[in-house]
Design brief:
Oligomer: single chain
Organism: Truepera radiovictrix (strain DSM 17093 / CIP 108686 / LMG 22925 / RQ-24)
Shape: globular
Main location: membrane
Strand content: under 5%
Order of helices and strands: HHHHHHHHHHHHH
Largest sheet: none
Keywords: Cell membrane, Membrane, Transmembrane, Transmembrane helix, Transport
Membrane topology: Multi-pass membrane protein
Subcellular location: Cell membrane
C-alpha cells in the first residue's frame, strides 16, 4: 500500500511539471485573442472586452495562404508517419521473427540512427535532393522525416513484436497462412507500440522548421511553421498574426495526439504491470 505522503509528493511534482509545460501554450493562446498593446502591457492577463481583438486571425486567414500551408503540413506529417510505420514494422517483424546470421548486428546498425542527429547531414541531404530534382517538393521532406524516424521506430517495434506469443504465429503457419498474413495478424497486437511511434514522430515533424526552410522554402511547399515566419520581419514583427498562426498550428497536432494518446499510454505502460 502506498504511503499518502509519497503519493501527495508525486502528484505535486506531476502537477507542477504539467503547469510548467502548459504555461507557454496557454500564454500563446490567450495573447492571440488580444490587441497588440495589450499583449505587451498585460501579457499574463486573460482577454477582456477592452483588449479582445481578432486582428491576428484576420491577418492569418486573409493575408497569407495558410490553408495551403496546413495542407502541406498535414500531407508531410501523415505521409511520413505512414512510411515510418510501414517500413519499420516490416523491419521489426523480420528482426523479431527470423534468427538469421547478423540479426543482432543489423539491429545495432539501425539503432545507430537514434544516436546520430540527421541534421548533421543537412549539406549532404541538400546536395542529394538537388541531384534528384526533389528540392521544393513535399516528397523531399517526407523522405527525410521517414529516414529520421525509422531507427527509433524499428527499435521500439522489435521489442514489442518479440513479446507476441510464438505459439500464435506457429498456429497460423500450421493453418497455411503466409508470412505476410502472419505479419498482418501481428500488427493489431502491437497497436500500442504503433501509437507510441506515431506520437513520438508526429510532433517533431509537425513543428520542424529546419528542413522545410532548407529543402522546400518555395511558397507552394511551405509548411505551417515556415509560413508563420512571414509575420516576423527584420525590424517589425506582427505578434498578433504570429500568435494566431501558432494557435491554429496547434489544433491539428492536438487532434492527432488525442487520437493516438490511448495507444501511447498503453505502449508506455506495457510491461510495467506483470
Amino acid at each position: 500500500m502506498k504511503r499518502p505522503a509519497a503519493t501527495l509528493a508525486a502528484h505535486t511534482v506531476l502537477l507542477f511539471y504539467t503547469a510548467l509545460a502548459l504555461f507557454p501554450v496557454v500564454l500563446v493562446i490567450v495573447n492571440s485573442f488580444k490587441g497588440r498593446l495589450a499583449i505587451f502591457r498585460t501579457p499574463y492577463a486573460p482577454p477582456t472586452p477592452e483588449t479582445w481583438d481578432l486582428a491576428g486571425y484576420r491577418t492569418v486567414l486573409g493575408g497569407a495562404d495558410f490553408p495551403l500551408y496546413f495542407r502541406n503540413s498535414l500531407v508531410v506529417t501523415l505521409a511520413s508517419l505512414a512510411l515510418i510505420l510501414w517500413v519499420s514494422s516490416m523491419a521489426a517483424f523480420a528482426l523479431a521473427e527470423y534468427p538469421f546470421p547478423g540479426n543482432t548486428l543489423l539491429g545495432l546498425y539501425l539503432a545507430l540512427g537514434i544516436m546520430v542527429p540527421i541534421r548533421l547531414g543537412t549539406v549532404s541531404l541538400l546536395q542529394m535532393m538537388v541531384r534528384l530534382g526533389l528540392t521544393n517538393t513535399l516528397l523531399a521532406l517526407i523522405l527525410v522525416y521517414a529516414a529520421a524516424g525509422i531507427p527509433l521506430a524499428v527499435f521500439i517495434l522489435t521489442q514489442f513484436m518479440r513479446q507476441v506469443p510464438k505459439d500464435l504465429k506457429d498456429a497460423a503457419r500450421i493453418d497455411g497462412a503466409s508470412e505476410y498474413r502472419i505479419y498482418a495478424l501481428v500488427l493489431p497486437l502491437v497497436r500500442p507500440a504503433l501509437g507510441t511511434v506515431a506520437v513520438f514522430n508526429m510532433i517533431p515533424i509537425w513543428n520542424d522548421l529546419w528542413f522545410p526552410l532548407i529543402l522546400a522554402p518555395a511558397e507552394r511547399t511551405k509548411t505551417v511553421i515556415l509560413g508563420a515566419q512571414v509575420f516576423l520581419g527584420q525590424y517589425i514583427n506582427d505578434w498578433n498574426a504570429v500568435l494566431a498562426a501558432l494557435t491554429l498550428a496547434m489544433v491539428p497536432v492536438i487532434v492527432l495526439y488525442v487520437l493516438f494518446s490511448r495507444q501511447l499510454i498503453r505502449g508506455l505502460t506495457a510491461g510495467s504491470v506483470k
